[in-house]
Design brief:
The complex is a heterodimer of chains A (about 300) and B (about 280). In chain A, about 70% of the residues lie in helices and about 5% in strands. In chain A, the strands form 2 sheets. Chain A has a two-stranded antiparallel ribbon with strand order 1-2. Chain A has a two-stranded antiparallel sheet with strand order 3-4. In chain A, a hairpin with a 2-residue loop joins strand 3 and strand 4. Chain B is built from 13 helices and no strands. The chains are: A mainly alpha (about 300), B mainly alpha (about 280). Chain B: This is Carbohydrate ABC transporter permease.
Amino acid sequence: MQRARIRWHIAVFLAPAVLVYTTVMIFPLFNTLRLALYSKVDQERVYVGLENFRTLFFDPIWSEQFWNALGNNFWFFVVHMLVQNPIGVALAAILSHPRLRFAALYRSAIFIPTILSFVIVGFAWKLILSPIWGIAPSMLDFVGLKSLFAPWLGKEEYALTTLALISVWQFVGIPMMLIYAALLTIPEEILEAGEVDGITGFSAFWKIKLPLILPSIGIISILTFVGNFNAFDLIYAAQGALAGPDYSTDILGTFMYRTFFGFQLQLGDPHMGSAIAGGMFAIILIGVCIYLFGIQTRMRRYQM
Amino acid sequence: MNKARTNPFNNIAMHGALILYTLIALFPVFVILINSFKTRKAIFREPLALPDADSFSLIGYQTVLKQGDFFLYFQNSLIVTVASLFFVLLFGAMAAFALAEYRFKGNTLMGLYLALGIMIPIRIGTVAILEMMVATGLVNTLWALILVYTAQGLPLAVFILSEFMRQVSDDLKNAARVDGLSEYAIFFRLVLPLVRPAMATVAVFNMIPIWNDLWFPLILAPAEETKTLTLGSQVFIGQFVTDWNAVLSALSMAILPVLVLYVIFSRQLIRGLTSGAVK
């Protein structure tokens, strides 16, 4: 009897979510990929196949910008992996220490930058690093390192790394929290068994805890990857759509924005913008696939 | 407890490292906040000093309140965030309930379809989203933002909430069915109250990215009357670059509401983050 009639309530429960999700997210996603195959000729939309992608990859003006943005984006990601995630893991390891006092206070304080918007973070650091205001140079002077100061955000060779480090400063809280959570799930018995065998302190971290939290490190890596490859806000807030100086901080997000909307004398081109979005989609998809099939399935999971 | 895990030297080193990092994390926020209450001269002469009777000034805040429409921006941000969270939670919980409670053809497939969006950022589809919003006349309305954020939040909401709903006891629901409650009543009156902690987790997860987003307000709703606080402060600061009092005050006014919300919700947020909701 149950089976014979259509259970309408299931459809009613699912409909709003599926409807909004499909029309505002999935459909535009594929529509964007489709738009990348068109171009505007004499005010009309014509199908051009993969022409836009050929322009993007091989036309000297476009390809130079594209590879520049992609390379910068990779460096942005590398800095996060090398600085943000190790600091996050280290902070989590200290915080998870049993009977550490004020742990909750430290945790909340260190997480504060993560809740601020990119606009605040970008401008705040811009002011602090500004040679006009002089906070950064006078602080370096205080520790006797004034000669190291340079207007980092204004120098081509430092600007991107500086921005990446600012972003690290902002987001260190996320790996910290996730690793902290993972460390808390390690049962006390395992650590005690290690102690009986003489493994304590640092070596307990390297030999026991780290292998057990590897899956969480995998997750923060892929979250970092996806986050970095669609980053935009911080660069835009700090350096503007031109991602100066001389495009040295241009990443895929700002490149797509500039192409899509146009800037200064260049007109916006939604089709080239879509082509760049297609490129971003492919990169993120490859990253996620490498993670899902290459890393996650091979990672050893320990029963705890 | 073993000696090596509690020795005083380690303890000092640990606190030292944490205090150092806490200072690094809070220093920029602190500098911005204290300098927003100073005169222009004091900002430059002694940037690290606290404001005193001599250097205290609210000139920056006066400029901000006169020149920028920060109350409107704040109101827009509030409307967008609250409405988006409402729809994410309502629609997400409904879909999660359907997936967790009923066996039907295509259940797994539907679950996978809705989970796709967890990893793929909605920004990739921006070109087509803008085209759609222009075609439907929603561009430069708060609805455009609410729809986008709802769609963006749903995948993770459905994923987390369905995990929690599987844990609600079947006996309870079957007892309600015997008592003649409809499926809708079971959902709204029985299951929803039981998964409230999970809903709160989803809410705080979504709140920060929605409130702080710059990309979609910039593209979908840049008009003066629909600017969010994030976009509004970005534009304002861009125009007043040389007026340091105004810039610092604008930054502080953007920081304070978030900081207040964080103090209220931080326990919930941290519990959500550490409860292993992201697996």
